[in-house]
């Protein structure tokens, strides 16, 4: 299996009005593991996620994948090589479920029929019945839409999977089911996953590595969930954990 190590090297993002979204952020995202960026609104976690596929360009520093600066990659080709799951699925409303799943493979030159056949298998893999393939997104529940979003992100068999608050719009019961499904899929597929959430409980549940961010995109602490729980780096981290009231979810 190919390695896909992501490195943030003193990355910053400053907008024209002077707003600092990310400040001197450095972190290694190990291959074939799940790293979670967790923090409140304004902590830069989604900005960092989108730097990986060049939806956001850093103001300073660099992001590399297996040592290659991603600025040396064609942005469109880079995005098509990376899976992306967003809140509420981000499905195209005018396209059927199966055509949503087949989108990227078809753009990459896979014949539509073959892409749809592979898409049916993916629907089953993410826990959906193949009978929904011809439905449209508005005919699905929120949980089903999120599963379709995951299937679409996996359709081109990417090594890297970006997940931006993917389960934030569903009720707690469905959210836990989706979290369990993600962990099952990761155990099978071993992707390099970067996952964004504001929920410390969710971060500790799904993450092999957790990066806690302060407002302004400052890295407060990173480590395994157990390391962070056992030794919070400062009062900010301790208070953030306490406010989240995490359950006993460590694996």
From TrEMBL:
Transport among keywords: yes
SUPFAM superfamilies: P-loop containing nucleoside triphosphate hydrolases
Name of protein: ATP-binding cassette domain-containing protein
Domain of life: Bacteria
Lineage: Bacteria, Bacillati, Actinomycetota, Actinomycetes, Mycobacteriales
GO molecular function: ATP binding
Gene3D superfamilies: P-loop containing nucleotide triphosphate hydrolases (3.40.50.300)
Any Pfam family matching the protein: ABC_tran
Alphabetical keyword list: ATP-binding, Nucleotide-binding, Transport
Family: Belongs to the ABC transporter superfamily.
Stretches assigned to coiled coil: none
Annotated ranges, domain ABC transporter: 6-241
Classification via PROSITE patterns: ABC_TRANSPORTER_1, ABC_TRANSPORTER_2
PANTHER family documented for this protein: OSMOPROTECTANT IMPORT ATP-BINDING PROTEIN OSMV
